[in-house]
């Protein structure tokens, strides 16, 4: 490893961002011998971006491994991803992320990350996802400790507001009037989900004259405003992804505007029914396993009048899902529950009774795609359809919760940003800023951390290699 110059002069590699992808890039570049400066927009106590709210990493493995049961081979991972994205994914980059995910955990452990078995309520993920002991906050803290021990220089409250990019080549970043040059740069500063104006632009107005984005909660950090994504677009970077597509979850309508995280998610959808403010069902609650479908419900609710929905269960469902942080409405009658939720009583009772009458109950098993389904009601419920007939009844008001947006910068297998179809020599992108290359739509649990970890490491290695190549070229000159 070359001499540590991370606190002296121009760094070899500048990493902009402070979450999982940025930290993986900084650590990898430093391990490769580069001096590294990391700029985090947030104060130290809010460092880590959305990664602080994560719990696990989806990873390929061909045999059982400590906390992972059975096997989760490449082809099954790919098919899971292909299904949730509807094929809107770059297969080459997706398969790269999948294969490299099998090699991440040993590296993560070397930097202080610990894993634990799946918790009660998440046992269905024990084969596919490795859970972080202490959650995402512990992971972020471990990476910062390791980075500082290796000599990575970290600056907090350092929001970069513009980039100096010439013909696709990075020259410098600016914080106000301060110019920070580097030989190579990794951008890992997130999407634009906390930029309400951009969300409004992306989602537009609906037929009722509403601006759906005005009613969104932001599940993660308030600092992901898309400033550098916009800067890259203005610099002529090739983009990928639909600005209205995102990891968008149905969360408790009482969730805070920012940083509600996973505890505000409502996980009982597949065990009951979901209705809109007119007490009408609007989608198949039992379409597929919850980890593959939870991230479509935010978008579904966003498309309903008032951007609100109501998840309704009976007492048979209690104990079968991870309970939310806030207790829901509870009543001994359907009419009483409707009153508490502010729904029309007659319409609500009619919807529930129509659903109940349509249920064809076979052998209920929430761990498999069982044969409990509806017949003669629209929309159908294709699995886990049990009548709502056992008091007390429970209801949770829902609203959309944006985790991260999918519009991003087009990259290649080196994580190099592309300009007019050509890869940049020294500008690389990781994490949410390029996730749209893999996630054109949809989501499956833990894959965001897969993308961030894999492409963070790739971007860090590529940036370090670019500085070595630059040094050789300068010496030759």
From TrEMBL:
Keywords: FAD, Flavoprotein, Oxidoreductase
Pfam families referenced in this protein's UniProt entry, alphabetically: FAD_binding_2
Flavoprotein listed as a keyword: yes
Cofactor list: FAD
Domain FAD-dependent oxidoreductase 2 FAD-binding: from-to ranges: 12-439
Top-level taxon: Bacteria
Cited InterPro entries: CobZ, FAD-dep_OxRdtase_2_FAD-bd, FAD-oxidoreductase_2, FAD/NAD-bd_sf, Succ_DH/fumarate_Rdtase_cat_sf
Protein's UniProt keywords contain Oxidoreductase: yes
SUPFAM superfamilies registered for this protein in UniProt: FAD/NAD(P)-binding domain (SSF51905), Succinate dehydrogenase/fumarate reductase flavoprotein, catalytic domain (SSF56425)
PANTHER family: FAD-DEPENDENT OXIDOREDUCTASE 2 FAD BINDING DOMAIN-CONTAINING PROTEIN (PTHR43400:SF7), FUMARATE REDUCTASE (PTHR43400)
Protein name from the UniProt record: FAD-dependent tricarballylate dehydrogenase TcuA
Source organism of the structure: Aromatoleum petrolei
Gene for this chain: tcuA
